[in-house]
Amino acid sequence: MKHEYYDKVDKERFSKEKLYIHENRNSLERCPYCAGSIKDRKVAVYRGLIRALYDVYRWCGVNRRHEFKTREIKHLLGKNEYNRFGDLVRFGGIVYKPKEDGESEKALFGINMARAKEFFAGKRDIPLQIVLDQISGEILSEVRGYVGDFPELSSFIGKNGLYDHEKPVQINLL
Ligand SMILES: [Zn+2]
Questions:
Q1: 100/90: higher pLDDT
Q2: Which residues surround ligand 1, an ion (CB under 5 A)?
Q3: Is the distance from CB of 146 to CB of 125 less than 8 angstroms?
Q4: Ligand 1 centroid vs 18 CA: distance in angstroms?
């Protein structure tokens, strides 16, 4: 017995349902199939996470690395920063997921050192807050800012000098 016709009908019905769910995600709030949250999500970086990013940037510079597993930098992160570190991938191309044959490895991250330095020097802006479509992964809107939007960190950098991964030894800045 052939089911092709029914398969086609189901596929059409399913794609219509998917479209309906996507269009109404904010009133539905939860996926009718798996109950997962589908409402647009506001995600913001916060000073502790940006401070942790600066510490990781320095760790990378000292260790002559730019890719690492989160367990290697665990000592630089608080519990929240450890859980939220991966969020940084969506914030301005400083942190990325290295890919091998199109696959990314769990808990493996990289830092674009040049961009990090520009950001901490106050010469590059990044999104500070984004609104995320959780179904498509698309960023719907963002508010951007500079390191100066984190006064504690920028005054720390102002007092101690900016760590520069391109200069060989800067023990005094650690
Ligand atoms: Zn679902």
A1: 90
A2: 31, 33-34, 36
A3: yes
A4: 10
